Amino acid sequence: MFEKLRSLSFKLILLMSFQRTQEKLKILADAAKYDVSCSSSGSNRTNKNKGLGDSTGMGICHSYTEDGRCVSLLKILLTNHCIFDCAYCVTRKSNDIKRAAFKVQEVVDLTINFYRRNYIEGLFLSSGIFKNADYTMERLVSVAKKLRLEENFNGYIHLKSIPGASDELMREAGLYADRLSVNIEIPTEAGLKKLAPDKNRADFIKPMVKVKNEIIQYKAEKKLIKSTPKYAPAGQSTQMIIGASDENDFQIMQTSNHFYKSYNLKRVYYSGYVPISYDNRLPQIGSAVPMLRENRLYQTDWLMRFYGFDVSEILNAQHQHLDLDIDPKLSWALRNLHEFPVDVNTADKRMLARIPGLGMKSVYKILNARRFRRLNWEHLKKIGIALNRAQYFMVCESNQFERRDLSAEKIKGLILQNSTSKYTKTLSNQLSLFG
Amino acid sequence: MQDKTLIYDGTFDGFLSAVFYVFEHKLTHVSIEHECTAQSGLFAETISIITEENKANRVYKGLKTKLSSSHTHQMYYAFLSEQIGVENLLLDYIKYVFSNTVSVGKDYSHASVLKVAQIAKMVGREKHRMEAFVRFRLTKDSIYFASIEPDFNVLPLISKHFRKRYADQKWMIYDIKRHYGLYYDLEHVEIVNMEFPKLFDFTKTDSSFFAEQEFEFQQLWKDYFKSTNIASRKNMKLHIRHVPKRYWKYLSEKQPD
Ligand code: SF4
Fold first, then answer.
1. Mean pLDDT of all residues in A203-228
2. How far apart are CA B59 and CA A106, in angstroms?
3. Would you say A85 and A59 are in contact if contact means Cβ atoms under 8 Å apart?
4. How far apart are CA B169 and CA B172, in angstroms?
5. Which pLDDT does position A409 carry in this prediction?
6. What are the phi and psi torsion angles at A57 (to 5°)?
7. The pLDDT value given to residue A259
């Protein structure tokens, strides 16, 4: 009898703790979802001593949300208590919402159990600022430390660097995390002052500089001593919110370029602002998320990082806004018709990559296929090159090519006529907002 | 010349032994067929091929001298597609490889090279999907169990990935369609055949087989999946392109509450 009662009450305790965890998870996953970074790639942590997990190679998307985003990490806040009041953030002090906080061990258990079931690649842990920066950062670090040292966990860990955290904590964070990030959120200082008066830019920069220097130092030591531990092997990233303040695309990409160059960032993420407040400094609830603009910024980012473009070729004092109706490479090509047509049988990689409509994969396909024969339109179609946009900008082993001396406007018209962009609907919606 | 049909046992070594036979006898009008799907053409002479590892290895080594390792892998991937006629496509590819002095693995303007690459790509995509969509459930005897029904026979391709990742837990991935699975016992991965109870529903988590805490973690995962969605950005078309509906029944996050 007594035994039975004991086991019953034990079950009850378990049930209660399950319900509590469930409630916390709902609140703290909901609050974390606006951070777009989901990447779990770029690390190279191998499974050690028959432990759990492995983060070599490409990160895996284990599922996708109904809005089409990759789910690869358990993305949660440690707590949504916060002493700050940033206008664009759901967690801000003045917002009337339910608050919750995980215990360190709870996060460890969730991560391990989700990982063992092949739900996730690892953990992305961020947090509201509880008490002060160091107090919060210390807890984030202890989650990572427990996972690595007690659980022998080799999955992916991304920690948010809390602005203003001390150098010692940042140094420790990098020993256990694969990636560290500080979100600069607002692309310009003026915008930041307006929307996040408690924050100052120097506090963001400080942990970023510390991590950058540690990475460099560890890499140098690694060359001398093989057993030097890894320090944040997947590097640093940051996020900017798009459309919360009134920066133009030129300013945004300049900031982005600056961060890539000065802090060796691996990624900058652009996140269309999702209206969450009636604060009159911000777009109102119900206004559209600028998804198309976000997409154009990512395309520009890509052109900068993988296609050999300098940011000033795409955005500069004369062209401060990205076109919404066509992609930035096409837009650049139309402004630079004198560079075309490109002969696909002789052009170098750099020029092939500049042909509108050709991705890097297509570029490599062409480089490979042309070693065996000179390519004509048929060959190009066969190896899977999409010609809708590209055909106006290239010639091949054929005497059929666009002979008319078409103006930029004309080419754009022809291309738009023949394409049903997946964004057409969004575009017409967003354009009608201005019309 | 009379047409010949070579019947092999369905293994990759068996297929390569058949290829060996083709070259040994300099056959030109020949078709290689799996013993389960062979249609023994009325006008063809059929020959049963005995799988011989050393012959298979000789063909494979020969291919390796002519192709980069990624292209020999590509052939294996295409083979695992189990598509009808893939053996003859691969035979044509192999003949083209051996008739050239340079490596032709990237000669995508040759029909068979392109086709093999395309099929391999489909198989590769399925491999990645399985690495992503396998959902382990903890059984009462502490084995993390997952069932799958992949379009292609990808179990041999995903073994290494799971062995590396889950080195400290026992796990089993079972292909319901092909009636075999991989079982890792903390030391090795073995191929196993299992007898499941009649009417066993693989999509359900039955409390007589699965551990108690399994239900809690499935619930927490489902909750997480819901919470992490941003409703104002909903895009079901994109969602379904990433997670085709035929995979839903095995995804814990897609189970009804
Ligand atoms: S400090 Fe961070 S969590 Fe707190 S209100 Fe600002 S953005 Fe939100």
1. 74
2. 55
3. no
4. 10
5. 85
6. 75, -160
7. 83
What are the structural domain ranges in chain B?
Answer: 4-126, 134-254
Pocket test for ligand 1, best of A86, A95, A130 (most atoms within 8 A of CB): A86
The span from the CA of A245 to the CA of A273, in Å, is: 9
A60 at B interface, C-beta within 8 A: yes
DSSP A87-113: TT-TT-TTS-----B--HHHHHHHHHH
Give the whole-angstrom CA distance, residue A268 versus residue A291. 16
Burial bucket for residue A231 (CB in 10 Å: 0-12, 13-18, 19+) = buried
Does the beta carbon of A92 lie inside 6 Å of ligand 1? yes
Substitution target in A45, A116, A425 with the highest count of B β-carbons within 10 Å is: A116
Per-block average pLDDT, block size 10, for chain B (257 residues)?
Answer: 83 94 90 78 78 93 90 94 92 90 81 92 94 93 93 94 94 93 94 83 79 90 86 78 81 79
Backbone angles phi, psi at B255, to 5 degrees: -80, 145
Which superfamily does CATH assign the domain made up of A27-289 to?
Aldolase class I (3.20.20.70)
B77 Rama class: left (phi>0) / alpha (psi -120 to 50) / beta: alpha
Q: Are A233 and A306 in contact (CB under 8 A)?
A: no
**Would you call B239 and A22 a contact, using CB atoms and an 8 Å cutoff?**
no
What length is written for chain B?
257
pLDDT tens profile A6-63: 555 555 555 668 888 999 999 999 888 876 554 555 566 777 777 887 776 567 888 8
On the question of pLDDT at A426 being above 50, the answer is no
Domain boundaries, chain A: 27-289, 328-430
ipTM entry: 0.89
The amino acid at residue A311 is: V
> Contacts of residue A70 in chain B, CB cutoff 8 Å?
242
CA distance linking residue A408 with residue A296, whole number of Å: 20
pTM (2 d.p.): 0.80
Query: In whole angstroms, how far apart are CA A256 and each of A252, A261, A320, B178?
Result: 6, 9, 14, 50
Distance CA A348, CA A344 (A): 8
The position carrying tokens 């738009």 is: A416
Tokens of A143: 């989650």
Cβ pair B235:A383 closer than 8 A: no
SS3 track for chain B:
CCCEEEEECCCHHHHHHHHHHHHHCCCCCEEEEECCCCCCCCCCEEEECCCCHHHHHHHHHHHHHHCCHHHHHHHHHHHHCCCCCHHHHHHHHHHHHHCCCCCCCCCCCCHHHHHHHHHHHHHHHHHHHHHHHCCCEEECCCCEEEEECCCCCCHHHHHHHHHHHECCCCEEEEECCCCEEEEECCCCEEEECCCCCCCCCCCCCCCCCECHHHHHHHHHHHHHHHHCCCHHHCCHHHHHHHCCHHHHHHCHHHCCC
The protein residue with its alpha carbon nearest to ligand 1, atom 3, reads A128
